[in-house]
Amino acid sequence: MAELKFQEDQFQPLTPEEQTEQSTRYADQLIRPEVVSVPTSPAHRLAVLSRLEKYLIASIIIGAIALGLFTINLRTTISSVENAISTVQSEITTNQNQINDLRQEKNELTKTDRIKKIAEEKGLTNKEDNLRNVK
């Protein structure tokens, strides 16, 4: 059925071109969805980061840097402790060698033959009555 157009107080039928144009406008208003803008490049997407995303990225980067610095500090501390341990171990070895040398010297100085020889040089005599065997 032909639609009518109101013109100068008269109704006139619409031409087929006007009918097509009017139906297209009507169809566009009913069917056409909203236009959604899609970013075309990653650079555009990066420019539209939210504050939360920026804070998260910044905190991850700061955390990685802090973890690296902590690791370096920890390795330095471990190295200094290992150095201190090796110093203490060398001191212990030196002290043990001194202890062994002093024990050996004590054993040499307390030999009975040496004590008798020194006593005879000083003019002391051995009294058999005063000697006792200690077990």
Structural commentary:
- By secondary structure, the chain is mainly α.
- Helices cover 67% and strands 6% of the residues.
- It contains four helices and two strands.
- The chain has helices spanning 16-31, 42-47, 51-109, 112-121; strands spanning 4-7, 10-13.
- It has a two-stranded antiparallel ribbon with strand order 1-2.
- Strand 1 and strand 2 form a beta hairpin.
- The model has no long low-confidence stretch (mean pLDDT 80).
- Residues 1-25 are annotated as: Disordered.
| SS content category | mainly alpha
Multimerization state: single chain
**Biggest β-sheet strands, sense, barrel:** 2 strands, antiparallel
**Shape field:** rod-shaped
The total strand number stands at 2
Enumerate the strands of the largest sheet in spatial order, edge to edge or round the barrel. 1-2
Residue-averaged pLDDT: 80
Q: How would you concisely characterize the structure shown here?
A:
With 135 residues, this protein is mostly helical.
Helices, strands, pairings?
Elements: E1 4-7, E2 10-13, H1 16-31, H2 42-47, H3 51-109, H4 112-121
Antiparallel strand pairs: 1-2
Main location: membrane
GO biological process, one term: FtsZ-dependent cytokinesis
Keywords: Cell cycle, Cell division, Cell membrane, Coiled coil, Membrane, Transmembrane, Transmembrane helix
What brief labels describe this structure?
135 residues, mainly alpha
